[in-house]
Each structure stands twice: as C-alpha cells, then as structure tokens.
Amino acid sequence: MARRQAAPAVGTHARVLSVLRAVTQGGGVQGVLDLTRSTGIPDSTVHRILQAGVETRAVDQVSRGRYRPGPAMIEMALQAMTSAPAAADVQQMLDDLQKSAGGVALLFTVTGFGGLRRLCTDYTLGDRDPETLRALTYKIGSMPRSLRVGAAGRVILAHLPAHMQQAVLAEGPPQSPAPGAIRDEAALLASLADIRRRGYAIGRQEALAGWDGIAAPVMWGSTVMGSIGLGLPVEEMGGDLREAIRRTCDAARAMSLIPGGKMAV
Length: 265
Fold this sequence. Notes:
With about 260 residues, this protein is an alpha+beta fold. It contains ten helices and eleven strands.
C-alpha cells in the first residue's frame, strides 16, 4: 500500500509567499542573496522557490542568479482588479460628485509603464464649456503624469509602500511644473505625511495654471489603487472647503474596495 505523503508545513507556504512578495519589492532585478537578506530565509530555500516561480511564470530569471517579477504576477493582478467597479458605476459616481461639488470630477489610476505614474481613466466636466476646458482635458487625459505633482498625484504617492515612494522621489520634479508645484524635497515629504494624517490632499495650481484641486485615495484594503480628484478654477477654490472635501472623500470611499472584493458603502 502506497504511503500517504504528508502535507507541507504551513511554514513552507509562508516562505513561498514571503519570497514572491520580496521579488516585487526590490525595485528591480534582485539576486538570491538580496532576497535572503530581505526575507531571512536560507539561500538554498530561496533558490528552490525562485526556480519553481520561473517554471510557473511568477518569476523571470533575467541572468544567472538574478530575478524579477514574472508575467503571471501581472495576470493575477489584472484578474484581481476585475473586482473593481464597472465603468457605468464609475461614471455615475463621478457625475454625482461633479453635480454636488461643482468643478470637474476625475478618476486617476496608477500605471507602472515608464515608472509609476497617474493616468486619468475617466472624468466628467458637467455643463462647463468644452472650449474653456480644452487645456485641462489635454493635460489630464493625454498621457501619464508624475505622482509628485498635483493633489491627485500626491495623494497616491502618500499611500504607496516606502520602496515605491523612493523610486518616484528619485526621479526628481518634472521639467516644467505648473506654478504651484512643490519643488522643495522637504516640503514634498512633509505634505505626504500631512496627507496620510488628513486622508486627502489640496493642490494650488500644481498640475495646471489657473486650476486648484482636492483629491482622496481610492484604496483596496491598505493598497492604493488610484485617486479621485475634484478640479476647480482658482477663483472658485476659496472660502470654506469642508463640504467639497467631504464629498470628494465620500466619493473615493464609495469607489474603494474592501477585503472580499465588495464595494465600500
């Protein structure tokens, strides 16, 4: 009679997950010794896990002893993101925010091509003159933008893991920022701490001259997925902002995901 094989110890599964997670957090290609240091797992065990990861496409081996995340990780992430709100729900939430708060309501998501950036994936202009908003729509919708600039970018940056923040900060400020962009590194870091404390960001002509913004993060548990921004002309961004801030934060919370893939309400 064949001997029944014992189930792997729980610790084995934890080690596999620790190594795979460490592969994604190194900010580039890593070696076995790098992963051993960051996980505390023996190098022989790390090597076996990496080889299994290569076979399953979860890890890419780019050279002898050097590894990076593989395409299967991207596929899993994309599949997980199908739990996000449907396009019609997103548009309705943006419409509701715009009607209640005025201005322009925008949804930004995080993209990793060419470095971490924010990309406007949906917006609603309300009844404003499209000609008046031509520059704004070009700026927000034409290409990925730096996370260092604008309330919608900084609120994402503030909630990224430390190693991702460092990668963004290492890029330096964009070449031609708007007049209100935060150029001083210490001031930028202080603003990120303030955003984490408050839960929202306010920008004064950071992304585009003549426009201010309020933004709040769209989260999945403790992971930032993007941000909702409310853009207002400078002359409309005065006085008591508490109601506009509350509505922006409420919209971001409604669009956020909680464990289990259900909408937060």
